Amino acid sequence: MPVIRDAVCSLCGSLCDDITVTVENNKITKIENACILGHSKFVGMLEHDRIETPMIRKDGELVPVSYEEAIEAAAKILVNSKRTLSYGWCSTSCETVSGAIQLAEETGSVIDSTANVCHGPTALAAQEKGSPSATLGEIKNRADVILFWGCNPVHAHPRHMVRYSSFSKGLFTEKGRRGRKMIVVDVRKTDTAKLSDKYVEIEQGSDLLLVTALRSIVNGREDVIPETVAGVPKAEILELAEILKNAKFVCIFFGMGVTQSRSKYKNGDAMSSLISDLNQHTKAVMIGMRGHYNVTGFGQVATWETGFPMAIDFARGYPYYNPGETGANDLLVREEPDAAIIAAADPGAHFPQKAVRHLARIPVIQIDPYPNPTTEIADVVFPAAVVGIEAEGTAYRMDAISLRMKKLIDSKFKTDEEIVKDLTEKVRKLKRGA
Amino acid sequence: MSEILIKNASVCDPAQGINCETMDICIKDGKIVESVSANAKVINADGRLTMAGGFDGHTHSAGKINVGRSINPNDARKNLVPGLSGQVARTEKTRAQVGYNTPNTYAIGYRYAKLGYTTICEAAIPLIAARHTHEEFKEIPILDKMGLSLFGSNWQVMEYIRDKEPEKLAAYVAWGLKASRGYGVKIVNPGGGEAWGWGKNVSGLYDPVPNFDVTPAEILMSLAEVNERLQLPHSVHVHCNNLGKPGNYATTIETMKLFEKIKPSRDRQALHVTHVQFNAYAGTSWRDFETGAPMVADYVNGADHLTFDLGQVIFGPAVTMTADGPVEYANARMLHEKWSNQDIELEDASGVVPLFYSPKSFVNAVQWAIGLELALLVKDPWKVMFTTDSPNGGSFVNYPEAFTYLMSAKRREEVISGFSKMALDRMVLPGIDRELDFYELAIMTRSAQSKMYSRPEKGNLKPGSDADIAIYDILPGQIDPSTEYAKVKKAFSGAAYTLKNGEIVVKDGEIEATPKGKIYWVNAKVPSAIDSAMQKDIDIKFRKYYTVSKSNYMVEDAYLQKPVEITTEGVF
Amino acid sequence: MKIKANLISGRTAAQGAHLEAKTHKGYFDACAYCELNPADLERLGASEGSSLKVTTEFGDVVVFAKANEGNPDGLAFIPMGPWANAVLSPDTHGCGMPGFKGVPAEIEVTNEKPLDMKSLMKNYREA
To answer: Among positive and negative, which fits the CA dihedral A424, A419, A352, C9?
Structure first.
């Protein structure tokens, strides 16, 4: 029976590329090396509901239609729309993203990714202060102090600590976990915090204060620090700063606790400055814990094709970017889009109620392998092959290393890359006719 | 495919020693030929200046430039060179464009083509991130592309040098080129990338790399020997130690001297030193900083084993991007600028920092002068490749502006008149009256590259060569570039015609067609026994240290658009 | 009895494992709950499995109660998903990112039962 080695797991931003998959009769029968998330993804091929056929909502209900009919209906929505929001494109390949950008350009749409509700502020922070980073192997081989700030890899990136961070072993880190200090900063004692050597609990929403206090100490101005900052006693902050300064190699991994809390992108901006300051004493880098397996890839492709990482508005014919204005949530809350195309993401589940309410009011095209809350408010639905299992393509790991995902089994479903291509062709045809 | 006859071209083709002579050029099936049939489509050049397509041998156009784009969204709107920068809406023929220093991929293709350039070489590909470079290559239209792979701080390289395993080192370099689909060996601040893994740097050619017991000089020599053993088309391409530091001209000359003993395996240089402007600084600090160009030029004039490129500065905003990680951190701290860094496991480092070159800053003014001094003081233009190290010294869209500096002393005087007395005291440019002619400019922008990169079908108009051709709206006998530099700039800013493989891609400065370009990569043959022995060593690297599997490391064929595999035979 | 709480949302392994199985009961179980520390639950007179009504400026939602000793007093956590988003803040503060963490909420015990995914989403279609 065919055993496929070194398959890339298309679930989270860790993009583990050491999965062994056994395939029998075009079915995945065994998975080795995957975590709970990856495992459920691969076996999900057998157990989860799929969207079985293209569907169009008629009289309130989604009813099966032919692929051609769905393409026609979707293309009409796009051609008749004056302001389309194209959203998602993160649990899919870079090749699909490229097609989606071209479609957005040709239809004058706004295209945005799930970074809008995830690490968008990290992109803004990089635009403010840069992104002092490294590939994950640098952490594995060198880091003796690892700080997880507002992230919880035990839950969100289960193999991260073994492959890349706390527990990994490398050339200068032969002792693995025993040779490392692991610190967690969070607002509650998470399962990751329970594994740490030092847990610093901060008041929710006060990350910026603590980062700023650390910067003051690192820059020799501990005298300006009050007795308590962010709910943390000064003595503890001094101790934390000393650990960081005296390390050989520090990495701060940060998550949505940093990007979604008060001060949003200013948190990452300050953290970037802290990293720069720490490099006066030691070696330090930071890496965002990206969620969707290819949300990093969307940012990369969008940046080289349009100059911007997300929230790109093509209404003027050229790319325009102002994320507080052209971001998916801002657009929806302003009730601006009159149609939406959503692929490989689930705003129905992950956008606040006000944005979802507007989505429910406008025609929505969905491309996805699986039904989800967005399906409940969609009007034209395309089933797609699962990228990384039923379709190949490129994805970017959280540290911007790109890998080629393999096709493991055949599928009756079209790839989202093909669907986007067909849709673009149909849109062109309708426009020429008009 | 169709035939084209270019009539009445004023051909400037230094490879054939042709200096602005009126003649016809025949094209068939994308190549230049001796003759065409009467059915050929005729382009009347009307006596206008005609050269081979330009060849930028050192530009940051795919890969790291994306970091530059992502931290500088403000660049997208910059329109400092109208027609070649800023936001441009899509058309039926072209994709939407943005940017100045860090344009999107489509704009890079269109704008180089408008300048009459048809081939570019990406200056730095980290092996593990090579897939990304090729993904961007795919989206750069029109141009032929190649890239240089980074080897200068690589663990396996340094270990083989330390352990005196030259044959395995050769096998590794061959494998690395294949894995990254690279064209040549790039060495950036040898050893410095590894030192930067600990926040440190190497201070010169004999400062050992921490933990690896090799020196930058050993890295350079060993990789040069391997480069020649593998008979690679390009020489090693070196970014010297101590870049950007006052006094570094001495390191640069010392590095050049090291290579006197390297015997090239092909009819080309043994060493290419890149963006020498950044490495030709005298003085001991930024206070007594002054030009080191005369010393470097003196040495180059007496040497025949090397070529170099300028890294010319253009006043205004630029974005520095380099595998020289420690330099970028130093830049960011000195300028209080934003700083991006990307250290690459087991291989190298990198950083990106935006900056602004101001003629009011005496340091920037002297930097500007140094690039031109190098071009003008080195007598033999075949040793010189024109670059701005785009976008480190400035965006490539400023090439036409820079050409006027090279061709007109009057134009230089205009710029220099704005400099401070202190700046003038630190440069020698005002005393230089040399002005390049079209022939010398053609050498520095296309013909020299043909030889430097062993691409005989590029950079010349001989029968058999690629029909990559630029026709500029200049009548060579009837223009004085020394005084009519505005006309020169205008003509070079938008070619009357650019042909790519015999297809008209630019007409009257506008994009006509956007074919896909080729990708050149080098497959150097190594005896299988040596290769197998080397593979065992890197298997250990992958098992213990890399975070990607070996099988997922190699760039797959799917990423190569119109690949051209250049095979060479290693000598063992 | 009502308590005031600071509401945050976030990922969990169980939520992540159901990313592509959101029509399953398992997704409902993984996301339709609110974690408080045991002391807060006691103040509410609630125990694990009780129905809680969470109300914010932006709406209200019914979810199950769950205890988590790692939560400090007054910190409520609902896994990211449609239940959390019924009450989180749509305001992006002009930077694109809605308010998924740090939303002031009131929590009380209720007799209502949490809506399943489809019923919850149906409300939007009918709104």
So the answer is: negative
